[in-house]
Design a protein that fits this description.
The protein is an alpha+beta fold and about 450 residues long. The chain contains nine helices and four strands; from the N terminus they run αααββααααββαα. It starts with a helix and ends in a 27-residue tail after the last helix.
Length: about 450
Amino acid sequence: MRAVYLKMLPVFCIAASIALAPTRPVAAQEPQHGTHRDVTSEQKPQQTKLTLEDLEQLALKHNPTLTQATDAIRAARGRKLQAGLYPNPVVGYDGDEIRPGPVTRGGEHGFFIQQDIVTAGKLRLSRKAAGEEQAQEEARAEAQRDRVLTSVHILYYETLGAQQLLELRQHLAEVAGQAATTARQLYNVGQADEPDVLEAEAEAGVTQLAVIEAQANRQRVWQQLAAMVGVTKLPLTPLAGNLALHPLPSLNRDQALAAILSESPEMKIAEAGLRRAEWALQRSRVAPIPDIQFRGGMRHNRELLESPLGRPFGLEGFAEVGVEIPIFNRNQGNVQSAQAELESARQEVDRVRLSLQQRFAPAFQDYSNSFEAAERYRKEILPKAQRAYELYLNKYHEMAAAFPQVLIAQRTWFQLQENYIGALVRLWSAVSEIRGMLLTGGLDASGPTRQFMNTGKMDAQF
C-alpha cells in the first residue's frame, strides 16, 4: 500500500496544488451595479461586462409590454377627454307648407339650431369615472414595469449563478485534466498503475461533461434574459458582479408585507376600480334626470297676409323646448348593474389584498430558507469541507490516507460550492420578487381594461 501511495503522490500533488487555488465563485464580492453603459447588440458587440443597470435600461427601452402599457394610458386619457365633451349642436333646414298656390306661394323656408343641454352634472360624473379608469391604466403600467424589472433581476441572478457555476466546473475540470495527464505520464515511466490512470481519466471525463452541461445551462438562461430585455440577438456577454455579497440582504417579514400591501400596484388598480365603480353608480342614478332639448330658428314665410296690400308674412322666428319624460325607462337596469359592479369592486380590493398575502408567504419562506442555507454554507459547511479536504491531503502526503478518500473530499468540497451558488441564486431571486411587489412575468400581457363608450349617448351607457 505504501508503494501505491508513493506512486500516486506526484499525480495528486499537482491536482491538489490547482484545487487549493482560490476559487472565484465563493469570493465575498458585492454584485456590481456600476455606471450604466448603453449596450445593444448592434452598437457594442464587444465582450464588456454587463451590469444589472445595463440590463434594466435595455428592458425599459425594448420590452414591448411597456410600450403597450403606455399606449393603454394614452387610450384611457382619450376616453376621459371624450367622456366630458358636450353634445354637438344640430343645424339644419326647416320647411313648412311647401306647396304652390296664390296664397302659400311655396310655403315657409328657413333654418334651425338644435342643442341638448346636459343636466345633473352627468358630464362631470362621466369624467370622474373615466379618470379612475385612467388611474387604473397608470397603475397597470407601474405594475408591468415592476414585472419587467423583477423578471430581469431574477434572470440576471440566475445567469450570474450559471456563469459562476461554469467557472467552478471549469476549474474542477482543469484539476482533473492535469491529474489525468500526469497520471498517464507517470504510467508511461512505470511510476503509476493502469487502474490509477483509468480512474483519473474517468474523473476528467465526468468533469468535462459537467462543464458542457453548465455551458448549455448558461446559454439557456442567457436566451431567456435576452428575450426579457427585448434584444433577442444580444450576444452572450459576461455579467458584472458576484452572488456572494456580505452581508446578505436582510428582510423583515412584517415590514416587507406591510410595504407590499401599501405600495403594490395591484392594490392601486383595485382601489382605482372601486372609485370608478362608485362614480359609475352615481352617473347611472342621475341618468333618468332629463336633459333639456332646445330647438329654435328663423324662416321666411311667403304666405300673403289677409290685407288690402297683400304683403307676405316675411321673417318669423320659432322656438321649441322639451324634455324626455322618464316613465318607462328610468335607467333602472343600468343602476342595478352598477350596484353589482360596485360590490364586485369592493370584493376585488379584498381579493387582491388576500392574494398578496397568500403569494407573500411562499416567497418569504423561499427567502428565509435560502438565507439560512447560504449563511450556513458560508460560515460552517464550506470551511469544514475545505478543512476536511486539506486534512485528507496532508494525511495523504504523510501516507496515512488513501487516494480515494482525498478524491471524495475534493468532490464534496466542489459540490458544496455548487450548492452554495444555488442557494445564493434562490436567495437573490426571492429578494427580487419581494422587492418587486411579487410581480413577475415581464412578457405576460396585462389584463384587459373596461372600455368606456362615447358618452355622447350617455343614457345608453350608464
